[in-house]
Amino acid sequence: MAIDFQRDLMNDGVPAERIQAQVKRSKNRIISPPVAILLCLDMSEMDSYPDDKRNKAEYMMAVQSVAAAGMQLLLAAHAEGLGGVWACWPLFAQETIQKTWNLPESWEPQGMFFVGYPADIPEARERKNIGDVSRFL
Questions:
Q1: Which of 52, 66, 93, 135 has its CA 20 to 30 A from that of 29?
Q2: Model-level pTM?
Q3: Integer Cα distance of 101 and 37 in angstroms
Q4: What are the backbone dihedrals phi and psi of residue 85, each rounded to the nearest 5 degrees, phi first?
Q5: Is 86 helix (H, G, I), strand (E, B) or coil?
Q6: pLDDT for 12-33, tens place per residue?
Q7: 34-117: which CATH number, 3.40.109.10, 3.40.50.1980, 3.40.80.10, 2.60.120.10?
């Protein structure tokens, strides 16, 4: 993943010293937590349709299902006093991850969770008013 990330940053014209700092930071984020969990999407048992519109909708349902499962995992970790963070980096290096971890071809890496006991518990952020972020009909 680091090689893919470095290549992408170079192609974006990011200065070399900044690339090295970002790659080092990403590596540390991956290897520091005691547990890393890779979430993958597998379309092999999803429905297939003769048209692109419904196939795209089926794919989006699978993506949403992975995200919902991930959120439940984070909530369960929190309930046990653990800290967790979701990283979507695997989306940028799916082939590398599949090859490195010898995953089935149908498994698409979608996200990675890092779980452990938090060193610090941050103060809760102020919540926005529900009327500012919702619309009730």
A1: 66
A2: 0.77
A3: 12
A4: -140, 140
A5: strand
A6: 999 999 999 998 988 888 888 8
A7: 3.40.109.10
